[in-house]
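Researcher: First entry.
Model:
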Amino acid sequence: MPYAVIGVTCGNTSRRGQPPRYGLWEEYVAALAGAGATVLLIPPGPEAAVEALDRVDGLMLPGGADVDPSLYHEAPHPKLEETDLPRDRTEARLVREAVRRRLPVLGICRGPQLINAALGGTLYQDLREQGATKAQHKFPKSWGLDHLGHRREVRRGSRLREIVKKGSVQVNSRPHQAIRDLAPGLVATATSPDGIIEAVETEDGAVVAVQCHPESLTAHAWARRLFADLVRTAAANRG
């Protein structure tokens, strides 16, 4: 099994009246560890882009709060949910530096949204309220984190299709935000039946990002392949 150190960002999970703290779902770490990775957590901070990337072989951006619309120069929509601007700013710096270095990156859920905003794209702050779709994309957590909400069509010839080895997969779905205007240098590689962008990658394939939560779907081989590919690519990058 290949070995690599994967940096994983985390954000603020404090509640009112509690001391500041950072958090990350264990499923992300378990999925990466199962693929042979050692995980290095990267909290928000002004030096994260340089100091953290000097110590890792690859990067993963997990799910979490809504992306702050200030990253793509828009005012907040009334349906905007909780944001974490320090995390957004740190991840944006990490993404731009990782792209410059051609470092392997996997984005999950808010990952493709953050990557798109960091590279010059925009987002729907709320899919249904802004008229992007009438379909349901945010399914209740009470239905199970592995609930397969809809099908995703994967673009032929994409790096994502090469990884998952399928032209179509059933995925879980939790977001109410998604990519609107695609950033320069990104390619849409999967869509939902209503045309919402479900995955993106850079033209060189170093960055791959999916809107679903594969860490909750590791019973499926295609989901495990996403983490295995990140670790394998990062291990090769490690030299």
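Researcher: Second entry.
Model:
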Amino acid sequence: MRYADTLLADGEVVIFRSRQHALALVLEARYAMLAWAVTIVAVVLLLVANPSGGSALFNALSWIALISFAIGLVLFLLQAWRWSAQDYVITNRRVLKVDGVLNKHAGDSSLEKINDAILDQNILGRLLGYADFRILTAAEDSSIDDYHMLAHPTEF
């Protein structure tokens, strides 16, 4: 059971569920990708260098490759955990946005108070299936909820 499901009232039914597009995970995991690039450079230098195994340079490059790979893996797994904890839910009563891993943040907009929904989708978003989505309510002229890189935006 997802955390958003625990926030539903009696008689409230989930109509559609989404989250950010997977490309958002890749963009947020840029430091992990940088660490993996360091790993690749170190491995290439290890292959080019004399693989005698006993030199200080060989040992240093081996440790750099191992440590940078491990750091990249930890950073990527943390970002993937944050990404998988997101939940964008439409119910028969409201639109609900939940994020956070240990500390949860939930916001909702009642369907009755929604005045407008703005969808911004660039050409790459149209090709890959994501868009930025903004909900405007009657209470405010400014956006109440922003959904950045929302997956399946037209269905949402």
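Model: Note on the second entry: Residues 56-84 form the longest helix (29 residues).
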